[in-house]
Amino acid sequence: MTARYDLGNREGLPKYQYLHRCIRSDIRNGVLAAGSRLPAKRSLAAELEVSVSTIEHAYSLLVSEGYLEANPGSGFVVCPGKAEGTAFFDLGDVSIPEHTLHGKLLDFKANRCSLELFPLDAWSRLMRQVLSERDPAMLETVPFNGLYELRKAIAFHLYESKGIRVSPSRIIVGAGTEYLYGKLLQLLGDQRIIAIEDPGYKKFADVSRSYRTYWDYIPLDKQGLSVEALMKSRADVVHVSPANHFPTGVIMSSGRRRELLSWLSGKPDRYIIEDDYDSEIRYGGRAPAPLVTQDETQRVIYLNTFSKTLVPSLRIAYMVLPEALMDLYRNQLSFYSCTVSSFEQSTLAKFISEGYFERHINRLRRHYKHQRQLVLDALGQSKLALISEVFGGEVGTHFILKIATNCSDKEVKRLAAEKGVSLDMLSDYCVHPSAKSSHCVVVNFASIPTDHISVAIDLLEIIFQREILAHQHD
Amino acid sequence: MTARYDLGNREGLPKYQYLHRCIRSDIRNGVLAAGSRLPAKRSLAAELEVSVSTIEHAYSLLVSEGYLEANPGSGFVVCPGKAEGTAFFDLGDVSIPEHTLHGKLLDFKANRCSLELFPLDAWSRLMRQVLSERDPAMLETVPFNGLYELRKAIAFHLYESKGIRVSPSRIIVGAGTEYLYGKLLQLLGDQRIIAIEDPGYKKFADVSRSYRTYWDYIPLDKQGLSVEALMKSRADVVHVSPANHFPTGVIMSSGRRRELLSWLSGKPDRYIIEDDYDSEIRYGGRAPAPLVTQDETQRVIYLNTFSKTLVPSLRIAYMVLPEALMDLYRNQLSFYSCTVSSFEQSTLAKFISEGYFERHINRLRRHYKHQRQLVLDALGQSKLALISEVFGGEVGTHFILKIATNCSDKEVKRLAAEKGVSLDMLSDYCVHPSAKSSHCVVVNFASIPTDHISVAIDLLEIIFQREILAHQHD
């Protein structure tokens, strides 16, 4: 355990404070599991060559914060519950004020900005209103597919913002995309094979596995998912994000969309699951019409979520089913109660129908656009510009930074980790990594606080200093 | 459609009002589907032998309430969304002030009282507090098994109120029992056969089917689930509600509990799912210790929900997994995000840890106890006492009223429906109905507003007037 705690490398922090931070990080990310016992103070002091009081000081800080428990007899034990939630979200020993940087420095998953931008005031006011109205409907069992008011508001939003015409009765509200995707797998039946993009959002494979549904991985190119590969596969259902592929940022070309729709009509029982998870965050140009609006076969299933536009912890997503599938759902799965609280459904319905949602999206868009520009400018002005190229980033909050390096992605990650930086690489999202998917850093610019952009770029420069030097010497 | 609208039987209501109510009821319970066209005013007027203005009046009321839409050319069409949610919850043409009686007269599912008793003020205040604290943790991704604060509060509650000792790290919070039960089925794997009580809560079979998991039905007797039948079955996992079987109200005897636990230890890979859904609502005596507290094999899974003690539409339930299963869950299913909103988890955590929950349960208990007594007294004083017997009702909000009748349950339900009353019969919950399960009305006394108890009893007397008369003539 203590091999990591290199007190020589503590960047000016007092020893006890550095040690406190190291141990806390190990607890948070699960290296030290709940219930495990820490070394006795004396032996750790001897091992690290520090005074016992340094250890004492660090341990007692951790006790006061609830990370450790002092058990008479058995010493200091890790408390339960402290690892979870912060696991995989730790910067380790980078000397950046830690209250501002909990997550990976360049981490797609942490939606830092949306946290600060969440319209808590409006939300609180509407929630208060919902609660004070004491509408009996709020306490009665919600329809299986969600409160009518919310579905109506979503239908209105879909029409206004994306030109999707849909009756509220075809919308199903659920606790997150994963939940709805699971219900879809149950609905489509166990004889299906799902096509999943590679690289892509790995959770769809995880969910499919947990529902014992088979899947094939389908590669993509600059135009989006390879329909050629899809046709060669066994799949009869395909999950795609044409508006913004994760994590490459590829927007499906109109030619490819046509190809995909003609694949759909090629056989009678094929389906497309169109996952439109962050298409609202678009910085310019006209958004291509969602596939669902061009679907003449009535076999495109449209999925979207409020995780990216509001906050992930609300757990509200929805899907739009074609009429026939909706009938099937009603027959087979409507015994499942709606998984979203009626209070929050009603609050969200008001939030959308009273115009807050649209204003909020506009605000998000402006904020992220500015943020993206700052990061791109800083990159352009840094020496990284010599050895890198940016792909994607027209929609959503991430782009790809392709680095000219000979280092393997594994090696790059190791080097970064040495500097205390967790890098997400495109190959992390690939099941079958290729030369094309190598050397690509996935940058979630929403996760970098504005005042830490230059630190982040500096760290990247340090990580790739060999490449920069080599380039300068060429 | 109009065959039902017997204007001769409108119990003093003006014709237009009676008609308005009939049509609305048909829309609500789905007899008139969204999009279907109503008869032209003239033809309906002719058919019912009323004036056109009566029809006009009824239709325009329905338009103003959003049930109908007047489409130029195509007449009056049923609006979408009005059927859902209220389906199966309609009293039809019983002349009871309808704003107080939306549900079935004697319906287990409608938790009417809990609606009125829901502590909206305290809940609103705590929710406001949570929202105004702007705790970043509220907006970050919640741990897969729920907010630590909530799990800690639940662990404390389980220990204080039921003597269940459990670490918060073994608790998983999810959006309702059905959701958690589904996750359990995924966790236990597809080679399992689940034992489900017959009669019992039908949804468990529905959920099992949707997860393609096989199940066997196991009968029960007065001591609870038949362990003898369980041993003869193929099942290696059993779902039971020993604290209060639904809908019979049987409390599992201590002997049967011992038998069941010894079945559990009979083979190494057996599990009990102990569903403790409404055990908090107990009117007297000492509650038997939950099975999970006597589980030496670490193979009892404990499930509970806040649907019965707070309100169903909140969608918050939890399960306690044995250590080994929790490890398995962490490995295989923790990629699933927690399905409950962080705001509501935090509000509930405060609600429990600040003592509101305990006080609320005490209040519920007093209220339901009083309500139960009123219903039992009214029954005892009515002529129904001559031909009926009460079973169950020591826990929860329902009991069984066994009627001495020769009518089949189907016939009884038809007779009741003629009076506009939807009766729940025990046989409705049986897959294999027996003589024992016949002639038993499931009475959810929580669903009868206090000032309608006598009306409800009167209606039951009318339904069973033949039996009462026969008894009096004997």
Written overview of the protein:
- The first copy, chain A, has helices spanning 15-28, 41-48, 52-64, 112-117, 120-133, 136-139, 148-162, 177-188, 203-210, 227-232, 254-266, 323-332, 342-353, 356-381, 409-418, 453-463, 465-473; strands at 68-71, 75-78, 171-174, 193-198, 214-221, 224-225, 237-240, 271-275, 300-305, 317-320, 388-391, 398-403, 440-444.
- Chain A is α/β, with parallel strands linked by helices.
- In chain A, α1 packs across α3 (52-64) and α8 packs across α9 (203-210).
- Chain A is globular.
- Chain A starts with 14 loop residues before the first helix and ends with a helix.
- At the A-B interface, α5, α6, α7, α8 and α9 of A face α5, α6, α7, α8 and α9 of B.
> Rounded to an integer, what's the Rg of chain A over CA atoms?
25 Å
Which structural category do the helix and sheet elements of chain A fall into? Answer: alpha/beta
Say how many strands of chain A there are: 13
Strand content of chain A: 5-15%
Count, helices of chain A: 17
Furnish the topology, listing elements before pairings.
The structure is a homodimer.
Chain A: H1 15-28, H2 41-48, H3 52-64, E1 68-71, E2 75-78, H4 112-117, H5 120-133, H6 136-139, H7 148-162, E3 171-174, H8 177-188, E4 193-198, H9 203-210, E5 214-221, E6 224-225, H10 227-232, E7 237-240, H11 254-266, E8 271-275, E9 300-305, E10 317-320, H12 323-332, H13 342-353, H14 356-381, E11 388-391, E12 398-403, H15 409-418, E13 440-444, H16 453-463, H17 465-473
Parallel strand pairs in A: 4-5, 4-7, 7-8, 8-9
Antiparallel strand pairs in A: 1-2, 3-10, 5-6, 9-10, 11-12, 12-13
